[in-house]
Design goal:
Chain lengths: ~120, ~120, ~120, ~120, ~120, ~120
């Protein structure tokens, strides 16, 4: 099942986020908190912000961050065409070393779409 | 004159882009060409694309790229508030090492606004 | 079988490259096309270009890009000694954070040599 | 068993380090040698140096380097609180793209502590 | 006067930090606030934290961040030998591309020492 | 005089390298020593190694390292066409954020050629 990669990512992410929150380091907790705030609608809407997070994550070549923002982009109602256009800018700006991350992003997006379609 | 930093950047950029184009390396010319195409409106509008270019440039900490996209963002009609909100995401994702570039981005944005206001 | 890592990499790469090409984003397709052109012989020969691609990939710490260029270097007839000398420069320039990628590069090179020796 | 990730990392690391040493590239061998020397006590004590290695590895987002320095930090007698405080600085300086590495660092630290507690 | 580089850096930094604070973006202000909190003594003392900030800044090759942490390291009472030992680890981990930043760090440290000696 | 940028770079580099060598940190001195050794002819010739150093420096976006390797490439007898072809690979692999460094590389190469032509 290709949507296993979605569940696998989310379950590890949730488990370790819990461990981090319980550990109670004040600086880390505030950074997590800021991360939630920064992506709520403001002068820019939610969709635009998710694309910004996606492109930043992609050029910095952080697969887990890309996965997270792909899922949030899907929830925010962005289309595959919009997401890929954002990724094309990331690939141009960040260079061909971004391509392996692009491969995994395509795979993950499809898994996110399948999971959504299956009504889970 | 604070808008000198705008003129200085643009004149050096134009001079060296000319030197690069004259040199006629096919790969480099095509990358320049792609750079123009990637930021024209498509599934995403021009404003969104400029913000994506700005955020990618900021997290990769490329001052000249930031300057270029700040000017293009201004031309595309983005407000300072929208631009700063994009930069706030870049600073959160890229960390406090982005802050020196944020300082220069604030300075450059003001210079761009002043130049526009002066009718040049 | 240590050459499984070669087959595994190539089969995932081929599958996802197909998915990307079918998706038909013009910017991404042109970048893929440039990638092919840039590594054909010109003022510099194929061997030199592959070493340049390998070193660029290594200092940017992109394992998949390293794998790709190791295989292309082998096909181009570069010896292990030449490849390792290139990797030694990458490790010096890029620092000890390159070492984990160096470990995986040594492993992959050996798998590539074994696959070639087995006549596959 | 969560300490499997400790054994798995160390056994691959040891095997490939051996392969690299046998290969006998002089530059690479000297870099490995420097790596040992740089972390011995000098003007700064061992604990401080391990934290410096840990933070450098974390902001450069090198999971294997983080694992190595977590284990060395534990051996040097650093507490979890000290290690996490160092990681909180790395996350602030390096940004939220460090967070996936932070998750894996928390997991690895716990595995290191468990392995030590089990008397292995 | 070699200490001009200290004054020049601090005056630009202060001016632009003021401009950023006045602009009142909530995310950016909180990041600035976290930056102050993260470097106060906790499980780790002030000196150790400044060295962590210095090494993180150096391997990420952020000259302005290096300058800031050099000055804070001096104020915290760290000796040149301790600071250089931290920078030697940064150069080893980050590679020879760190060397240009090392040159500027040596120059800046001397300017900081001279400024302090002159009783300013 | 456009060759002033060559003299300016070399004189600052020489002055600060002297200051670093006098300071006598053993790790740093050995890294400097390795840097000299790594670029002498071995399995790969001097020209190829300089191109590897140039491309590594360019994708890591280190202007001073690029300047140094441009000059060494010129001394080693590499032509502008060969150097630019190497830089085109760096721009493709590293992305459009490399372009500002490409501009400065073109400018510096011309200054190096002029200085050589003037018989200095």
């Amino acid at each position: 099942m290709s949507n296993n990669i979605v569940e696998e990512f989310n379950s590890y992410r949730a488990k370790m986020n819990d461990a981090i929150m319980e550990d109670n380091n004040k600086i880390i907790k505030r950074i997590f908190n800021l991360d939630t705030n920064a992506f709520t609608a403001g002068a820019l809407d939610k969709k635009t912000k998710e694309l910004l997070g996606l492109v930043a994550s992609t050029v910095l070549r952080c697969d887990d961050c890309v996965k997270y923002h792909l899922e949030e982009s899907h929830k925010a109602g962005l289309s595959k065409e919009e997401v890929i256009e954002a990724l094309s800018i990331a690939t141009l700006v960040g260079g061909t070393i971004v391509i392996p991350h692009l491969r995994r992003a395509y795979e993950y997006w499809d898994a996110v779409e399948q999971e959504a379609a299956s009504g889970l």
